[in-house]
Amino acid sequence: MPTWFDAHLDLAYLAVSGRNMLAPLAPASGPHPPAAVTLPALREGGVRFALATIFTEAGGKGPEGYPAGNVDRAAAVGRAQMEAYLTWRDGGEVGLDLRRVFRCEPGVGQIRGGMGVAEVVRPTPEQVVAALPREPWMHLGILVECADPIRDPSDLKWWVERGVVAIGLTWARGSRYAAGNGAPSCSSRTGLTPLGRDMVQAMDALGVVHDVSHLSWRAMDDLLTMTEAAVVASHSNCSALLDGDAATPSQRHLRDEHIREIARRGGVIGVNLFSAFLRPGLTPEKPGRATIAEVVKHVEHIRGAAGGRRCVGLGSDMDGGFGASLLPEHINRPADLARLADALRDRGWSDEDAEDFRWRNWARFWMDR
After folding, report:
1. Is residue 168 part of a domain?
2. Omega of the bond prior to 328 within 30 degrees of 0, cis?
3. CA gap 338, 341 in Å, rounded
4. Is 126 helix (H, G, I), strand (E, B) or coil?
5. Which tens digit of pLDDT belongs to each residue from 201-223?
6. 2 in a structural domain
7. Which residues of the chain have pLDDT under 50?
8. What own/partner pairs with CB < 8 Å and gap ≥ 24 does 38-41 have?
9. CATH number where 244 lies
10. DSSP letter assigned to residue 356
11. How far is the C-alpha of 33 from the C-alpha of 15, rounded, in Å?
12. For 175, phi and psi rounded to 5 degrees?
């Protein structure tokens, strides 16, 4: 079975919203029908590694929502989603151990010596996977998508101890930490707030990765000025393909200069499979399904802007506020991701390069952290 690393899946959000995430896909209930994701469906599709989110939204109407500025309520909502992951971990369904899986500590790997000098040879991604026990089959790192549930930077250690490896300081609507890339937050003169700047320092001190996918462009520029750490865009596509020369381009998508900077730092960009983020003109009022060829256009644009294929992978966002009917044509569940890898090969990508896209680029990123 092919291996996939999906850098953006809202698994706990779906669970707290009423979907039985332990059931086979067909009878899945809950939000955003028709469903594309449950844990058994991800296993069937070969998604062995993922960044799984804690998604919260100021003003949201469901169990992900909290009143803007209400720190206690935001913390309670976020911790409820954390509890879903801890329950799955304790039941053996998943490992919350992405860092441990890909960490290469002294003594890990083969020891070779010569001339009286011993050298630790870091294992390859394939060797890391081959050494994993059969169960738990799926290994997660938790991505906090909007930092509002984290009361303040002193609270960060609690989250890291429970599996958080990456944080996006805000969702589209903005947070106490940063301006978001949705209107009206993206028009704010504020990028990172003072509390956000303190959080950046706390994240860097603990080695927590920055996810820029929902930062306003000003907030992203503030972040990139403030830290030299590697950053990722867990589920982002290309502004150049979606907005072109538009007078007011959507800040939800990455400009080429941001793609280049993420790549320069050794980061990875996960291509988002929401059709409205793949084809210009699709909106909630005018929905439709993009094509797999349009996904490939975004993958290849990232490759071209970055100058190589090592900085692009998958960040599907499957069921992240939309159902399978808004994924690209012929992709209705994780098992269908194989069609995307086939399309890359049809475009001249080698088997090695297709494997890099499927999982190795993300694996290498975490091995380097």
Report:
1. yes
2. no
3. 5
4. helix
5. 999 999 999 999 999 999 999 99
6. no
7. 104-113
8. 39/11, 39/88, 39/93, 39/94, 39/138, 41/333, 41/334, 41/335
9. 3.20.20.140
10. I
11. 14
12. -150, -175
Nearest to 163 by CA among 71, 99, 93, 117: 99
pLDDT at 109: 43
What is the rounded distance in angstroms from the CA atom of residue 296 to the CA atom of residue 339? Answer: 11
- Residue bearing tokens 């380097």: 368
Rounded to a whole number of angstroms, the distance between the first and last alpha carbons of the chain is: 27
User: What does the pLDDT read at residue 105?
Assistant: 42
Residue 77 to residue 59: CA distance in whole angstroms: 12
Secondary structure of residue 54 in the 3-state scheme: strand
Report the half-sphere exposure of 271 (CA within 13 A, side-chain side): 30
Residue 100 is assigned to a structural domain of this protein:
yes
Q: pTM of the prediction?
A: 0.95
> Mind listing the pLDDT tens digit for each residue in 311-334?
999 999 999 999 999 999 999 999
Count the domains in the chain: 1
